[in-house]
Amino acid sequence: MNAPISRYPVPDLKDLPADIRERIVAVQEKAGFVPNVFLALAHRPAELRAFLAYHDALLLKEDSGLKDQAASGHGLTKGEREMIIVATSGANQCLYCVVAHGAILRVYEKKPLIADQVAVNHRKADITPRQRAMLDFALKVTRASHEVGDADFEALRAHGFSDEDIWDIAGITAFFGLSNRMANVMSLRPNDEFYLMGRVPREKGKA
Amino acid sequence: MNAPISRYPVPDLKDLPADIRERIVAVQEKAGFVPNVFLALAHRPAELRAFLAYHDALLLKEDSGLKDQAASGHGLTKGEREMIIVATSGANQCLYCVVAHGAILRVYEKKPLIADQVAVNHRKADITPRQRAMLDFALKVTRASHEVGDADFEALRAHGFSDEDIWDIAGITAFFGLSNRMANVMSLRPNDEFYLMGRVPREKGKA
Amino acid sequence: MNAPISRYPVPDLKDLPADIRERIVAVQEKAGFVPNVFLALAHRPAELRAFLAYHDALLLKEDSGLKDQAASGHGLTKGEREMIIVATSGANQCLYCVVAHGAILRVYEKKPLIADQVAVNHRKADITPRQRAMLDFALKVTRASHEVGDADFEALRAHGFSDEDIWDIAGITAFFGLSNRMANVMSLRPNDEFYLMGRVPREKGKA
Amino acid sequence: MNAPISRYPVPDLKDLPADIRERIVAVQEKAGFVPNVFLALAHRPAELRAFLAYHDALLLKEDSGLKDQAASGHGLTKGEREMIIVATSGANQCLYCVVAHGAILRVYEKKPLIADQVAVNHRKADITPRQRAMLDFALKVTRASHEVGDADFEALRAHGFSDEDIWDIAGITAFFGLSNRMANVMSLRPNDEFYLMGRVPREKGKA
Amino acid sequence: MNAPISRYPVPDLKDLPADIRERIVAVQEKAGFVPNVFLALAHRPAELRAFLAYHDALLLKEDSGLKDQAASGHGLTKGEREMIIVATSGANQCLYCVVAHGAILRVYEKKPLIADQVAVNHRKADITPRQRAMLDFALKVTRASHEVGDADFEALRAHGFSDEDIWDIAGITAFFGLSNRMANVMSLRPNDEFYLMGRVPREKGKA
Amino acid sequence: MNAPISRYPVPDLKDLPADIRERIVAVQEKAGFVPNVFLALAHRPAELRAFLAYHDALLLKEDSGLKDQAASGHGLTKGEREMIIVATSGANQCLYCVVAHGAILRVYEKKPLIADQVAVNHRKADITPRQRAMLDFALKVTRASHEVGDADFEALRAHGFSDEDIWDIAGITAFFGLSNRMANVMSLRPNDEFYLMGRVPREKGKA
C-alpha cells in the first residue's frame, strides 16, 4: 500500500556479501530493525561499503592512523553531529535523513522536541549559541560552499571550535549532502519505526 | 608565493599509512605528479580511504559483488562520467574539481575544448543530445534533488539510459558534491599541471 | 529554561476581553491545553479577533451569508486543509505552524507519519496524486503567486478541483503565509504537547 | 474589452449582506468609486469581513481592548504604513496592491512621486533613513521571515522604532502578503481611478 | 532637497562637446526638458556617444548598411520595444528606466495604465498573447540568458516573430540591462516630468 | 561538424561596410584570426559599430573629450579589466566571453592559470585583496545592481579605488552583461584559438 523503500531493486539479506550482511545484522540487533538505507544501498555493495566507511570515519571517529594528527580535544558531541545532519537534510528536503537522523538526534540528546526544531528552523531550536553557529556554517556549506572563507573560520573559532572541528562539520555536511541526493533520487523511504523513536520517555531501541 | 594547497596541514608522504602511500605513489607514477586532493585529504586517512573506495566504485566500476546485479549493458563512458563531474563542479564553483577533472575529461575525450565548454555552460558544448540530457539531470540532482521524480527518469530513458545508468549519474553527482564542498572549505588548490593537460596535441601524461 | 512563547508580552487569560477569554477556554477544554498562538496574538485583541474570524471562515467553512454562492460540492477535506498548512509552513520555515498543524493533520488523517512527510518534501508523502497537485499549487502560491495563471487552474481542474476549491487552497495558503510571518517574527514557540499528538495509537486529545 | 476585475464571480451590491453593503457604500461615498477588492472578496462574505477587520486593526489602529497594552507612543504614520504595503506588494508583484495603495500613499504623503519610487526600488526613494530601515525589514519579513532575529530588532530600535512599531511593520507586511497572494490568484484588476490619484495637484478623491 | 540626479559629477551643457550638446538640445526641444540620463552619462562623453549609437540602432532602426540583411517585415512596434524596456527594468529594479520608459510607453501606446501594469507584473497587463510571449522571453534573457535555447525561438516563432524580431527583443533587453546597471550604480534620478507624462488625456510632450 | 558560430546569418567580410571590414582586418592582423564576435555582430552593422565604440571607450580609455573630467590617476590595469569580464561572464555563464576574454586575461597578466581561477571562483584565485574586492563588486553589479549603495563605494575606496575606477568596474560589468546576453541568445561560438592562448610560455599572438 505504501511506497516501496526504493525505486531500485532491494536485495534480500541472504543474497548480500557476507561482510555487508554481518554489518546489517549487527545494526538490526541493536536497533530492532534494519534501517532502509542499508538495504537500498546494498543494491551496490561496493558503494555501500565505501558509504559505511565514510560514515564511520566521520561519525564514529576512530583513530585515523595518521601519526601527527592534531587531537581536537573536545570536538563535537554525538548529538551535535546529528544536529548537523538533521539541519542540512532539512535544507536539502531529504525525508529519509530528516526522519532517521531526527530519531537518532532525539535519542542522543534525550530531547524529544529537538529534531523537529532543527529540521524546520534551527534558529528557533533549543540549542546553544555555539550550536547555532555550527548549524549556520553547516547550512552555508550546504548552499554556498564556494563562498566559505576566512571569516567563517573566525566566527567558529570564536565559539571554541578548532579547525579540526570545522573539518568535521564540513565533512558531515558534505557526506550527508551526498546521502540526501541519493535518497532523493531513489525515493528512499524511512522506516516507520524512526518517526516515533525518542519521542516518548522510555525508548526501547537505541537509548 | 601561491596559496598553499589546503588550509589544513598536509602530511608528508613518508608519514602516511602504507596503503595510502602506495596508492599515491601509483598515481604519481602514472600521472607524473601527485594530485593535491590525495595529499590534502590524507590529513584524515580514514576519510581518504573511504573517499577513494567511493570514487573507485563509481568511476572504475568493478564487479560489485552482488549476485543479481543488473548489468547495465553499455552504461556511461569514462568521458561521460568526467563530463558529469565537470558540469556539476562548475555549478558548485569548485576550482579544484573543474580544473583537475577538466584535464581528465580532455584526455579521455581527446577533445581539447570540451572541458571549458561543459564547465561554463553545457548547453553550448560540443556534446550529443543524450549527453545534454545526462548533464541536465546531473545539474538538477546538484541543485534540487528533492524535485527529482518519475518525469526525470522517463526523460533519461528516452535517451537510452538504463536505471542503473541513472544511478551512476546521480551517484557521481552526489559524490562530487561532497568533494566540491570539502575542496571549497579547505581551499584545495589544483596542481598547476592540470591546467594545460589535454589541451595540446601530444599529452605525455594520462593519454 | 526554554525560550518564552513569544518575544512580545503574553497577557494573562484573566486580563483578556471576555469574548477572547471564552474562545480560549473552549479550545482549552477540547484540546487539553491552550495553543500558544492564542495567547501570543492576544497581545493585540483586535488582530486576534480578525485572525480567528479569517481562520474560521477558511477552515470551518460555515455559510458565508452570500445568497448565490456556488456550493463547492465536495471540496477539500479537513485533512487536506491541514496538509496545505503543513506544506506551506514548511516552505516558510515556520516552526510553530509545522508542529501545531502537523499534530492536527495526524489526528485528522489518522496517519502518524504524514505530517513529517508533508513538511519535509510532499513529493515523497503517502498522499494521492490529487493531493500532490493541490500541494504543488499551494507551494507556487507561497513562492511565486505572481506567476499563477490559467495553466495552474487547468491542472487543478483536471484533478477534480472546482474553482471554489482552488480559492480555498489559495486562501488557506495566503492566510497561513500571514501566520508564518507573524510566528517567525515573534518567535512563537509551539506547545510541547503538539510534538507527540497523533503519533501514538490512542491520542487522548483531539481525536 | 479589458480583463474582468476577478477570475471569480463578482456579486452585485444589492445581493450582499447588509453589513458589507453598508461598508462598501461608505467607501464609495468617500472615494468616489468602489475599490475592486471589496467586490471581488465579497464573493466570500465571511472572508471579506475577517479581511476588513484585520485591515482595520492594523491600519486604523483603534483601541485593542487589551488593558495593559503598551501604547506605542508615536508609532508609524499613515503614510509609512502605506509605504510598507507598496514596497512589499512590489516584491510580491501584486498589481492591485501596488496601484491601489500607491494611490493612497501619494495622497497621504502628498508626494506624487513616492509610490513609483517605493514600488520599484525603495533604496532610491525620497524617504528618510528611518523609513529605509523600516522597508528593509518589511522586505525581509516578506522574503525570509524565518531569518528574522534579534539583530533585526536592534537595527530598528536604533532608528527609534518601539517593539510595538515592529509588530505593526510585520503585521502590515504579513497581512498584505495574504492580500497579494489572493489578488494574484484571482487576477484582481485595479480600478482605473487609482492610477492617476494623487499624481496631480488637486486630487478630488481622498485628499 | 531631493537627491541629486547622479552620484557622479554632472557636466554643464556648455562644457560638453558640440555633438553631444546638439543632441541634448534637440531632445530638450522635443520633450520640453533634458532627460537626466543624458546629463549623467555625459560625464563620460565617449561612453555616452556609444550609448546613444546603440540606443538608436535598436530603437530607431535605421538601415544598417549591411547589404543582405533580412528585412524583418513587420517587426516590433515602438510601443512593444518600450514594453520590453519597462518589463526588464522592473525586473532589474531600475527606477530611472521604469519611470522614464514607462512615460514613453504610455505616450506611444496611448494607454495611461499600461506602464504600471508591465512594470509590476506583465502577466496581468492589458497586452496581447503575442506581447506576453515577447515579455516572457525578455525576462528570461534578463535572468537566465544561459538557458535560452531552441525551444524559446520556437515559442516566439509560433507567435509570428521572425528571428530578426527575436534579435531585437534580446538586443533591447541586453542594452537596457546595461542601462539598468549603470543607472542603479550611479543612483540616476528620473526627471519629475516623467512620472505624469502620458497619464492624462492631453499630453503636450512627446505625442 | 561543430556548431556554427552563431544562430544568425554570418556575413562575408567582403559584404561588410568598409569601416567594419577595416576594423576586422586590423584585428585579424594583430591576433592572427578574426574573433567570432566581430563576424556574428556584423549581421547588424549599426549595432556592431556602437558595440565597438562602447568597448573601446571602456577598455581602451582614450580621452573622453570632456574638459573637466577627473583624471582617475592610476585606475584599473588592462589585466584587471579582463578579470572583471571573465568573472562576470562566468556568473552569466557566457561561454564566448569566458573563453575569449580568459585568453586575453592570461596574455595581459602573463599568468596561465588566472583565467580558469577567476571564471570558476574568484575567491580562490591568485589575485590581490584589492582585486578580490573589485570582483566582489562586479559580481554584485551583475546579480543585484539595485542593491548597490554607499557601503559598496566605501568598501572599494578603502582599497584605493577612486569613484572613476568604480564607474569603470560598473561600466565594464554592465557592458559585458549586454555582451553575455547577446552571445548566449545567438549561441556565439568561441574561436578554437582562444582556448589555448596564453597557456603556454611562448604565445605568438597578442603578447
Which residues of chain A sit in consecutive blocks of at least 5 with pLDDT less than 50?
62-73, 203-207
- Structural class designation of chain A: mainly alpha
Main sheet of chain A? none
The helix-strand sequence of chain A is HHHHHHHHHH
End-to-end separation of chain A: 31 Å
Oligomer: homohexamer
Overall shape of chain A: globular
- Kindly estimate the percentage of residues of chain A that lie in beta strands according to DSSP: under 5%
- Give Rg of chain A in angstroms: 17 Å
Helix content of chain A: 55-70%
Largest interface: A-B, 55 and 55 residues
Total number of helices of chain A? 10
In short:
The first copy, chain A, is mainly alpha-helical and 207 residues long. The first copy, chain A, has 10 helices and no strands. The first copy, chain A, has helices at residues 18-31, 36-41, 45-59, 78-91, 95-109, 114-121, 129-144, 150-157, 163-186, 192-196.
What do you see in this structure?
6 copies of one chain form a homohexamer. The first copy, chain A, is an all-alpha fold and 207 residues long. In chain A, 60% of the residues lie in helices and 0% in strands. Chain A is built from 10 helices and no strands. Chain A is globular, with a radius of gyration of 17 Å. Chains A and B meet through helix 3 and helix 9 of A and helix 3 and helix 9 of B.
